[in-house]
Amino acid sequence: MKTERHTNDAPKVEPSKAPTNPNNLAVSVSEDGKEVYTSEAVLTNTSSQSESKPHASPIAPTEPPPPAIEEEDDLSIPVAVGTKCLRKGCGKLFVSDELNRLGDGEGTVCVYHPSPPIFREGSKGYLCCKRRVLEFDEFLKIEGCKTGRHVFAVKAAPGPTQTECRIEHYQTLDKVHVSIYAKKADKDKTSIKFECDKVILDILFQDTKRFTRTIDLVGPINADTSTFQIMGTKVELHLQKEDRRSWSVLEKSELVKIGNYAVTFGVGGRTGTIGGKEIILDASNQVKAG
Question: Is pTM beyond 0.85 here?
């Protein structure tokens, strides 16, 4: 049997170990002298989440779509008896102008769907109302959701209105550069054609405007190498000259207005016209003017 030995020596005291910090606590001292322990892992996760989380940007409000342009009945077009109303969901048969087209009688009232039909996953209906059916026969029976007047003969849509555009130009040794100030020109619908002595313009805008003009050029151009650019605010023409003669004006009509004068940058004698208010011609041009 093992017995404990008695001794007069004081027991050895091991030095105390620094407390472990299993949670990686960060120590800070507050203003009143107290120690505050905070988990570094929590701080790291919080900071990383705040850095990785993108800042929510405000969502710009979407503009509502423009209202659909509905067809109108052209009262000037005669309609045969028995013609069906062209509006979706109506199907009313024409009897007479007095009953179905003129005045405000009951026969002129049309109940229809202004929007096109929609077929999705077997259900059928119209975009303008919520009702959906499965059978096609039931789809044909869906009553209209809007009230208006019948359309037996569609009125032709109004064409674009003619407008004017400012035209400027300058020339280099081998080209003439023309600027047509046509803001918001439609690239897909605009047509520009080059010929040896003219440019045919047909510029359609994104609204209901149109600019048409034929420019009879004062000099010949190479139609194959001449080009154009449609920009946001203007249309640029780059006309390739057939020769290197200077163009006094762009169009022949302008040449008639000013007369057949030569373009010079100085005249004989001690006087000139550059910057002057009075035109002074040299001897050769004085003969033409007379």
Answer: no
